[in-house]
Specification:
Number of helices: 3
CATH superfamily: Nucleoside Triphosphate Pyrophosphohydrolase
Number of domains: 1
Mean pLDDT: 93
Structural class: alpha+beta
Order of helices and strands: EEEEHEEEHHEE
Helix content: 10-25%
Strand content: 35-45%
CATH topology: Nucleoside Triphosphate Pyrophosphohydrolase
Low-confidence stretches: none
């Protein structure tokens, strides 16, 4: 089997003033037909940082202009063999600035606002259910480094590599 490509991306967790989460019903792979936070791949050729990517993707997908100071990096997760197609290094951000309203649909999909409880009933990727949302719930005010074994044919396994600050 040839080696899998390694991709680097960001996800940005955005909320409205009521605390509902903005999710995108993806019209393209990966995760076509599933709801997920906005995000995208780093522009590696330009040397884009994860923070720069999160600022760019937030504007491109929602029209909201933010700066680095509006973001909190709460997790880095290395996903091995996601969908058997590639490895991913994902940087998870929480945007501290609320969205004023629902953004218009984009070529990548359509948006919706959902309470945290409602997210559980949505069609979301297995890794989001097993790793991303539990990470958001536990560490959104802190930082955690994780790795996830996403090889097909087995349950997703998530391992904590570091938590900052250390738990009490």
């Amino acid at each position: 089997m040839p080696p899998l490509p390694y991709r680097i991306a960001v996800l940005v967790f955005l909320e409205n003033a009521a605390g509902e989460h903005l999710l995108l019903l993806r019209a393209k792979a990966p995760n076509k037909g599933a709801w997920s936070p906005i995000g995208g791949k780093l522009e590696l050729a330009s040397g884009e940082s994860p923070f720069e990517c999160a600022v760019r993707e937030t504007f491109e997908e929602t029209g909201l202009r933010i700066g680095v100071a509006d973001l909190h990096l709460f997790s880095m997760i290395a996903e091995k063999a996601y969908e058997g197609q590639s490895h991913w290094l994902m940087f998870l951000f929480r945007c501290r600035r609320p969205l004023p309203g629902l953004p218009p649909d984009i070529s990548e999909g359509r948006f919706g606002f959902f309470s945290r409880k409602a997210v559980e009933a949505l069609a979301i990727p297995e890794t989001d259910r097993a790793a991303l949302w539990p990470t958001y719930d536990r560490y959104r005010e802190r930082f955690v480094a994780l790795r996830a074994d996403c090889r097909p044919g087995r349950p997703v396994q998530v391992y904590v590599e570091e938590i900052t600050p250390a738990p009490d």
